[in-house]
């Protein structure tokens, strides 16, 4: 299995001229699970979007290297081909494109021309993944995310992750909108991918609960667009017990969001 390293160095990102990320430095290697925790509005999704190359998020300085290659110089599709994957907090609906067709195109977009996955093999893999995620088989024939419940959208993101087999995955709040049963199914699927591959993962969440199911190796807290604390699972446990207030007191700040002070 290949070893991959994603190095984020002093990353500054602006949205509509306002600086949201103010110097994020983080390295994720194959086999490592990093959790980024933080209250709402602290820049978590902005980090995910900048990694994947969303055009609204302007990187003003810093770098993101995947195995030494500058990701910031790659187009969005090149980033996916290079092995990066994002499970989005708010997956978009695409009318007219079935989930199945979307998945197959995504897989083929990452393969060389002439080496496309056969329809038979694709269906076999997709059916296996649908079973594992306890997703109704009919969903594959519905338009992507259209009319899906919050929980179905999240399962569909993990379905993609499973089939695309990325080197490094960013999971943005995959726990939001999931009831406890769905959370367990989604977490089990992620843990299975973790066992069977050497994927590296950045798990974004604002609740500690998810981390009871997917245990991170490292935990980072983000506030005001910066990583303000890093540690192991004990840090997540303290956040579960005491919330985020004590960190704000330690930092001497009142507002943890990127807020108006940017
Ligand atoms: P989190 O995911 O931690 O809740 P976000 O990264 O989504 O936080 O947002 C951080 C800040 O950036 C917020 O103040 C938010 O309003 C702003 N922001 C993020 N994305 C956009 C956008 N596309 N347009 C305008 N403002 C944005
Ligand atoms: Mg977010």
Automatic annotation (TrEMBL):
<dbReference type="InterPro" id="IPR027417">
    <property type="entry name" value="P-loop_NTPase"/>
</dbReference>
<dbReference type="Pfam" id="PF00005">
    <property type="entry name" value="ABC_tran"/>
</dbReference>
<keyword id="KW-0067">ATP-binding</keyword>
<dbReference type="InterPro" id="IPR010230">
    <property type="entry name" value="FeS-cluster_ATPase_SufC"/>
</dbReference>
<dbReference type="GO" id="GO:0016887">
    <property type="term" value="F:ATP hydrolysis activity"/>
</dbReference>
<comment type="similarity">
    <text>Belongs to the ABC transporter superfamily. Ycf16 family.</text>
</comment>
<keyword id="KW-0547">Nucleotide-binding</keyword>
<dbReference type="InterPro" id="IPR003593">
    <property type="entry name" value="AAA+_ATPase"/>
</dbReference>
<dbReference type="GO" id="GO:0005524">
    <property type="term" value="F:ATP binding"/>
</dbReference>
<dbReference type="InterPro" id="IPR003439">
    <property type="entry name" value="ABC_transporter-like_ATP-bd"/>
</dbReference>
<protein>
    <submittedName>
        <fullName>Fe-S cluster assembly ATPase SufC</fullName>
    </submittedName>
</protein>
<feature type="domain" description="ABC transporter">
    <location>
        <begin position="6"/>
        <end position="249"/>
    </location>
</feature>
